[in-house]
Every structure is written in C-alpha cells, then in structure tokens.
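Input protein
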Amino acid sequence: MNAHDPRSEPTGSGFTPTQREQLDARSADQDRTLEAIHKLEAALGAAAPGRETSWLREVLAALAHLDEATREQQRNADEVDSLLSDIARTQPRLRHRVHGLRAQYAQACATVEALRRELCASSEVRNMDYPEIRDRLGWLLTALRHQRTRESDLIYEAYYDAFETDLST
C-alpha cells in the first residue's frame, strides 16, 4: 500500500497544500509585524513636549508589541517546515539569501530588544531627546520594511524559478 500524502501534491497554483499553509503563515506573520510597525509609528508621531512620560509609555508599549511580533516572525521563519526552510531545501541557489534573511531577523530582534531596554532604563524622562529617539526607531522601522521586501522578493523569485510563472496571492 502506498502511503501517499495528498498534502505534497501541487494545487492549481503550483503550491502543495503544505506550501500554501507556509505562505499563509508567513503572510500572517508579516501582517502582525506590519500592524506593530504602524502602532509604533503612531506612538512616535504623537506629541512629546510636555507629556514626555505618557509619550514614552506609549512608545514602549508599541515597541513591546513590535518586539513580540518580530520574535514570533523570526521563530516561525526558523522552523524546519517554514517557507524559508522549504526554499533553502529545494532551491540551493537561493540558500544564501535565506540565511541572510534569517540573520536580518536576528539583528532586528536584537535591535528592538536593545532599544527597549535602553528606553526602559531612561531615568531622565523630562530631559529625553525624543527627536533622537524618533530618528533611531525610524531607522529600525526602515530596516524592517527593507527586510520585508527582501523576503517578498526571495519568495517570488523562488516561485518563478520553480514554476516559471508569476505568483498570484
């Protein structure tokens, strides 16, 4: 008797059901991270002069949300059954880019955590340099967006290489 797994058979899109699940999980991770980015942008854009304590509290809450989202996204991307793992396994030419993206995830998570720790330790709330904090967190958000586009490009390239057609989501 053949123990054939129907989840390994391509669907009309060229993806197997398992690969479709991986793509959906990746999309959910990116949506969660994007939501956290938007919350942090809103907190950073709020007025700070004269309300430094509440401004910092809102920024820290948004940064905590971003920390959670990026860590979850990194954990999921590192799983053996993730879409990135599938690309690394099935398309050796793209393996180095998968490793690069994973290194970027780790760097982004470390940066979020370090900035969070630093801001939590701020004892001089009244004298804080909130424009500098905005700039530093703005650079982090730019790096996260850059990482997001690199991952999307990699996935589309992998799909095109495998199926010689554009990916329709």
